[in-house]
Amino acid sequence: MRYNKSAKIMSLIGLTVTLFCVTVAYSALGASLKVSGSGSVTNAGWDVHFASAKGTPTGSADCGTPSISNGSTLNIAATLKAATDKCTYTFDVVNGGGIDAKITAITMPNATGNSITCEGLNSGANASTNATKLCSNLNFALNYTGDSGTGTVNVNDQINGKITKHMALVVSFKSTTTNIPDDDVRAKNIKLTMAFNQTT
After folding, report:
1. Pairing mode of beta strands 117-120, 163-173
2. Which of 32, 88, 121, 174 could form a disulfide with 184 if both were Cys (CB 3.0 to 4.6 A apart)?
3. Full-model pTM
4. Mean pLDDT for each consecutive 10-residue tract of the chain (200 residues)?
């Protein structure tokens, strides 16, 4: 099916990849860092953060310029104009401290409980239908990239102290979908979260 690039633009606005819950309290707002247990550590010993974000488009997609807030939030805005378009956002997860860390939870943007909101940008009877089409047909993939490999990022993956892992979040339509919106639609409140803890 051929897609009209000029008239049909699906925008993903304010996509946030939020690194939070590092052990007990590493929030998206950069709150104090703590490691629970019988001992304690200073902030200098625990330092897991995002760095070096870049967006790369495929096809006619517009991936914007991603930014990082407080070292813990990756903000992006992606516009997909055709069924085969995608945006690949590469970023680093840096363990700058001396404490080995592991991923304890990953919640993808389309997981149950996450509240992606889609809205038709033009008035008309099909605005609500197009919004539903977008939200139900988005796909997200989180993989390693570069010299960190090409596999999927998984729970229990380890990032040792003073090590950087290169990752990529790919935003696209589902490969099997034929139910693409036929007018402008925006998706908001999209979040991918990764929780980290020290290894035992």
Report:
1. unpaired
2. 121
3. 0.75
4. 46 48 28 35 72 92 83 79 88 92 86 78 83 87 94 95 95 85 80 83
